[in-house]
Amino acid sequence: MIQVNGKWQRTYKNAIGRWAAVGPYYAMFPNEFAFDVVSRFTDPGDWVLEPFAGRFSSIYAATSQRRNGIGIEINPVGWVYGQTKLYPAPRESVEDRLREISQRARFFGVRSRQKLADFFSHCYAPNVLSFLLAARHDLNWKEDSVDITLMSLILISLHAKLGSGLSNQMRQSKAMAPDYSVRWWTRRKMTPPNLDPLDFMLKKIEWRYKQGRPEGTGKGLAILADCTTELEQIVLNVKKGEQPRFKLLLTSPPYYDITHYHYDQWIRYWMLGGPDFPSKVENRHRGRFSSKGAYQKLLDSVFEHVAQIMDDNAIIYVRTDKRPFTLETTRNVLMKHFPDWEVEETNRPFDGQTQTALFGDFSRKPGEVDIVMRR
Ligand SMILES: C[S@@+](CC[C@H](N)C(=O)[O-])C[C@H]1O[C@@H](n2cnc3c(N)ncnc32)[C@H](O)[C@@H]1O
How far is the CA of 55 from the centre of ligand 1 (A)? Predict the structure, then answer.
């Protein structure tokens, strides 16, 4: 990332830009946008809050500019990306761990592979699948920073266009349904790429670390949790004076009835210990938010807590969907909890950059709206 004439632009020529790209997620802020909002509305040392952090774009934009931030995300895929980009482990340790995992792959041979759904042998070559099974079994992605970093680099390449990832042809941002994929590959006689996972991953690591690791950053906290419960603790910490108030809320809640974040990431979710098939049966916050009442309750609970921990001079910046139910619910809930704040709304018509369209899903895109509030 680089600022040219006051405008943030993407670049891979510095470490901040390379690590900002971690990793593909179905709905995410363009990094330029997150960097711009943080630099416009906060000063170094200020605190930024993001309760629906996704891949932690807001918090990374904050720490990269010497602000501090707390982000909460319920989906482990987004959290692993966030934790990695905030605190990437040293390159040598990640490479050593990769070599260990690659050695361990021989303990995950034919018998381990056969236990998996048919889909996997169509998606991955046998040696790649053994490597993935070893990584899935051994990497302590919840606690160990080297393992978290390696896991996120594997997740990025887990599925992608044929030739640029570990899998047979697939979109990088969104995993397709297993039966559909198998039919699609079989009809086109497409087989998974035959590659050496150790060599492949070493090259990916080399690229990622080429400009080093992001330095001179602020404090960033990535929390893997349901924000409705986690925010209660943050409210307590602020009231006890253990956590400063926040100067910026930069967030984008899930859109009503649009994406199922776990389902769309099911292969990456499997790598993190989830089932070997896409599952829609999840707890009430993980699904598609298809009950209007539950959606309203989620936003109500979150913004009620947020209102208790913002600074008097804070900015509330919420990007949301333009479809009437999501927009009206978000607007009403915000106005309920920030009653005498000024509201400004800006249309962000679809220009190929909306969150859900970043990776080529151009259907049904009425655009997005930025709701900005201040006292
Ligand atoms: C629109 S995305 C946000 C993307 C983010 N702005 C970014 O740049 O990556 C909404 C996110 O909210 C998460 N989410 C939904 N319900 C949640 C909850 N109760 N607690 C925490 N995160 C939640 C979803 O998993 C999803 O990643």
Answer: 8
d(C-alpha 299, C-alpha 292), whole Å: 11
pLDDT in tens, 165-193: 999 999 998 899 999 999 999 999 999 99
Q: How far is the C-alpha of 63 from the C-alpha of 78, rounded, in Å?
A: 17
* Residues 347 and 322: beta-carbon distance below 8 Å: yes
Torsion of the alpha carbons at 259, 34, 370 and 52, rounded to the nearest 10: 40
The rounded Å distance from CA 23 to ligand 1 centre is 14
**What residues does ligand 1 touch, defined as CB less than 6 Å away?**
25, 27-29, 52, 54-55, 57, 72-75, 78, 226-228, 252, 254, 261, 285, 355
CA distance 123 to 185: 9
Structure tokens at 264: 């769309």
Name the closest-CA residue to atom 16, ligand 1.
285
Of 236, 308, 246, 240, give the one whose Cα is nearest residue 45.
246
Pair 77, 83: CB distance under 8 Å: no
Phi, psi at 315, each rounded to 5°: -115, 135
Segment 22-62, tens digit of pLDDT: 999 877 899 999 999 999 999 999 999 999 999 999 999 99
pLDDT value of residue 256: 84
Report DSSP letters for 309-368, one per residue: TEEEEEEEEEEEE-SHHHHHHHHHHHHHHSTT-EEEEEEE--SS-SGGGTTS--SS---E
List all residues 6 or more positions away from 94 whose beta carbon is below 8 Å from its beta carbon. 146, 149, 150, 153, 205
Q: Is the pTM of this model over 0.85?
A: yes
C-alpha separations of 116 from 39, 168, 194, 275, 364 in Å:
47, 16, 19, 10, 35
CATH code assigned to 20-86+217-264+285-374: 3.40.50.150
Contact indicator for 158, 197 with CB cutoff of 8 Å: no
* Residue whose C-alpha is closest to residue 20's, from 156, 132, 175: 156
d(CA 351, CA 349): 6
Give me the residue spans of the domains in the chain.
20-86+217-264+285-374, 91-209
